[in-house]
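Support request, please re-run this one:
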Amino acid sequence: MAEEKEAGRPEKLPRPLYERELYRLQTELVKLQEWVRTEGARLVVVFEGRDAAGKGSTIKRVTEHLNPRVARIVALPRPTERERSQWYFQRYTEYLPAAGEVVLLDRSWYNRAGVERVMGFCTMEEHQRFLRQCPIFERMLVEDGILLRKYWFSVSDEVQEERFRRRLKDPTRRWKLSPMDLESITRWEAYSRAKDEMFVHTDITEAPWYVVESDDKRRARLNMIAHLLSTVPYETVTAPVIELPPRPEATGYERPPRTLQTYVPDHASELRG
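Re-run finished. Output below.
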């Protein structure tokens, strides 16, 4: 039915193997972070793809052990009326990294090539202008020294629908299922055509697209993180030697009575196995 189904569904990666390799890769991400910070590098990672393709969960694993003052997630809401009157890329430029920062874009300026194009939120003229300007915009970023990486998370229609159904049943993830997500089912082929056209114009040498097969989320996370690490020329930064100081002798301090403070109830003590 679409390009995402051609490879078939991969065998699910065993959890022990996945967790061991994920921890190793996350350790490398911390090294990458310290290199970015000390070298004053600027790294932008774009996460795009099908709804329910695993972008959000991958971003969580990328940032799990990183310093939020160095690595930050940008997930913009729908544009305001004022932003709609601006140059399209303008609202994104203020979120670009300064020296020593990593920015992870949970969806990006490519909204115009995807949801806006398919749902009719932009005109044909605006869409065509985006396809002309986007490669220029990204070449400017790269020429200025920004490390730009773009990942497209691909999922089959069958797996996408399974994930939507699980979201319907899970009260902690029900919020992830929006009316726009439901449209992605009925407009599957329209989104496929929009993605293909987007790739033709924006898969450029200076900032190529990297496709992540994500029918198995565990594989997708490991593959994406490993690839990101392989594309950045980071080096291990020697950490300063840190020693805990000796704790000084007590000088007579007495803690105030517990009755003078309000404690949260011990909910955990009421649990039964």
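Confidence is low (pLDDT under 50) at residues 1-6. The first strand starts at residue 42 and ends at 49.
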